[in-house]
Structures are given as structure tokens and as C-alpha cells.
Design a protein that fits this description.
The chain is of the alpha+beta class and 149 residues long. Helices cover 48% and strands 20% of the residues. A hairpin with a 2-residue loop joins strand 3 and strand 4.
Length: 149
């Protein structure tokens, strides 16, 4: 029972951290520090990539510095920020390259699974359950591996 309370408490901390990341991302979008820089499409879902000068990249602008194009990009940024604030989409990852990085966002409305806090021990236990169910692992191997911890 105590372990469950501790796990729930830790998940709340993780969720709080994730929400703070999303709110911070929304603020950066609304202040023009970052902007949409790309869309990536996968089977059945898509996500958005956000970046800009703050992250070492360039701010996207309308073709030939078109005011209409810039307005459209600004409106997209506002919509993305609203979706982040309303918890409709989430920060799903960060892409790091030489010289810049970007934040990826997506969510169920874009076909991406809901982002939920998880603890490493839960992933470890889930992995062990799958392996035990579908694979025959020799006990000697497990003994050897446990001896090397």
C-alpha cells in the first residue's frame, strides 16, 4: 500500500514536470521565441516540430517575407499554444542536432497516444512479464546476470 502511494506521488511529480514543460512551450510560442518549424507524419498520426532562434535555429517566415504568410504562421503558433495549455496535445520529445534542437508536440487529436507518466520500475516489470510470457529464458542466464549486478 505504501509503495502504491509513493508511486502515485512520484507520478504526480512527473505529470507536474510534463505540464510545466507544456506551459513553458506555450509561453515561448505566444511570445514568438519559438515557432512551428515542421510537421512529421507517421502512419495514422502526425506531430509538430517547434524551434527557432532561441534553440539555435531560424524563425520560419512567410515566403518572400509575406505579411500574410507571417500572420498565418503566428495564428498556427497561437493555436498550438492553446492546445498545449488546454492539455489537448503534449510535448512528446526533444530532437537534438548539431547547432540546434527542437521540441516535438502531438496528442490524441493528431492520432498520437496519450502521454502518461510512467516510472522506470513499471517499465521494467512490464518488460519482465512480456519476456516470461513469450520467451524461454534459461535460469542459468538469469543467475549469471543477477550475479553481475
Amino acid at each position: 500500500m505504501i509503495e502504491t502511494c509513493v508511486a502515485n506521488s512520484e507520478k504526480k511529480v512527473i505529470h507536474s514536470f510534463q505540464r510545466n514543460l507544456e506551459i513553458t512551450t506555450a509561453i515561448l510560442l505566444l511570445t514568438g521565441q519559438i515557432t512551428i518549424i515542421g510537421v512529421f507524419v507517421r502512419s495514422g498520426r502526425f506531430g509538430l516540430s517547434l524551434g527557432g532562434p532561441l534553440f539555435g535555429g531560424h524563425r520560419i517566415e512567410g515566403r518572400d517575407h509575406s505579411q500574410v504568410g507571417n500572420l498565418f504562421i503566428d495564428i498556427l503558433d497561437i493555436i498550438i499554444a492553446i492546445l498545449l495549455i488546454n492539455d489537448a496535445i503534449h510535448v512528446t520529445g526533444i530532437f537534438i542536432s548539431s547547432g540546434d534542437f527542437s521540441i516535438n508536440v502531438s496528442g490524441p487529436i493528431f492520432g498520437y497516444p496519450e502521454v502518461v507518466p510512467a516510472l522506470p520500475i513499471e517499465d521494467y516489470n512490464f518488460f519482465n512479464t512480456i519476456v516470461k510470457k513469450h520467451y524461454n529464458v534459461p535460469s542459468e542466464l538469469l543467475t549469471t546476470l543477477k550475479g553481475n549486478e
